[in-house]
Amino acid sequence: MEGKRSGPRYFPILPVLALAIILLGLLSMSSVFTKSQQLLVDGQDGQLTKTAQSVDNNIMGHFAWYCSDLEYITSRTGFLAAEQIYLSNGDGDGLLYHLRESPLPKTVMVESMLVLRQGAVELSTSGETDYTPLAVLGRIGDVAIELWRDETDRPYVALVQSKAEIGYAALIDGEAFFAIAEKQTAAEDSDRILVLDSQEHYFFHRTQEGIRVDAVDELDSTVHASLYIMLTTQRAGRPLTSFFRAGGQSGGVGYTARLSVLPAPSNANGCFTVGVARNYDEIIRPYQSAAFQMVLCAVTIMAGAALLLVFLLRSRRSHRRAQQELALLQEKAEAMEQLNAQTQALAHRQRLESIGTLTSGIAHEFNNLLTPIMGYSILILEKLSPEDTESYDNALEIYNASQKAKKIVARLSNLSRKGTPGGVHPVRLTPLVEQVLEVASPAQPKTVRVETGLAGQAPPILGDETQLFQLTLNLVLNSFEALAQQGGTVRVSTAWDGERVSLRVADNGPGIPEEVKEHIFDPFFTTKGSGKGIGLGLAIVQQIAEAHQGTVTLDSAAGQGTAFTVTFPAAPPEAGETPQT
Questions:
Q1: Burial classification of residue 568, based on how many CB atoms lie within 10 Å of its CB (0-12 exposed, 13-18 middle, 19 or more buried)
Q2: Coil, strand or helix: which one is 98?
Q3: How does pLDDT run across 346-371, given as a tens digit for each residue?
């Protein structure tokens, strides 16, 4: 009874453990999202800092270019001569002419060129002289970077070069200056560029209405959070990256922005603090959406896993039954394949038996025809006089052709025979091979050399000596024919391994192509030309070998010679041995 009560106590552990794993997974997912969010912020800070440096370098590059042009213009000979005329008699037409024709007034940024005397504007290429300097921001070489304004409090950035009695200035409109600062930087389209002069007079920025240049003392830095961060960073003198709430003060929808600031004391131009702000909400929104989707996917996956587990448990029995049915179907399919293979083999065997029956009938009919031909040709030869050589030769040719035809008929008869050979007795292959080579020597081409490697101690095999003689002769004659054109070597050898005796006939001729190998033992298959063979030689070889419980193997490749190996079982010791003649 106690054992039965203790079982259910452990059952609630499983759902509690599953819940703990789910909570641990959610906590891990939250930690991963927090780390990825921090990596995102770090990556954005690096991009913002590089963009701010790009804006800073852009400003510095334009200032250096314009200052260099200003120094070059005021040092030319014609300009210096016009300057002396103006200083001596007050005639400034030549001086203004040189200023107007210089490259600076023709740029987008420079609005007017000024001639200064004792700090006051005396001449202007635009005709306006009511300009007031506000502050010196810095210097590039002999040229000072200053802030000016006109009678309407419109701000300007002035590049001022001062000499002993006279000075010159290139006035750059504040909005044009900011527009140039924005261009040719690495900023994205959604980035906001912010610029503050080092003396904290003007705040250059872009709003929905366009570029604005606002006086700092007219803005509430507690409302304009970006201005507050710019002022704080400039006064601290070190770069700063911070979040702030943007967009709400202009009546639009507020958003969280990330601002990176390079203060004037530590940047390249030294005159303006540069900041770049980016909408952080647009950046983080896809990640937040992805995190939500990940959580939703995790919950969905866990719910799906639970349903799948239930389904698997319920379908386990059906799955086993399906496996058993599949195994049964596989067995039936294998049985069908075996039956199909056996049917094809049986059909092939029936075709061969039909060919054998047909061959046997043809051989019998041919024998009936050849017998009178040979008999009458002999009678003609006996009755012809020795002087009638032409008729004698013709009759002899008829007799010889009949003899050849009778040999072919004999081969056909051998091919059509079934069962084991008759007259079986022990036969040694080595003496048999020697006799075959002696008989085949008249057919050996002059360009063909015969080598032998005969195992004299090989045991005998049980077989019909006549048929074994025919098998060996067919293989040797085939090798002679293969080498008839190019010449070569035929090697005939015998060997034994204790249980089986083998006969090998090899040549170094042209070899047998792959597409021919599969048909090489088929009856009536031949690669010789018309009238040169009927394709029974190798078929008879295979038939004789199988009748003696032997095997025939072919080893050949195109251009690498050919070798036929016939292996027979050795005769048992109790079989004795019949001497061969």
A1: buried
A2: helix
A3: 665 666 566 666 666 777 677 778 78
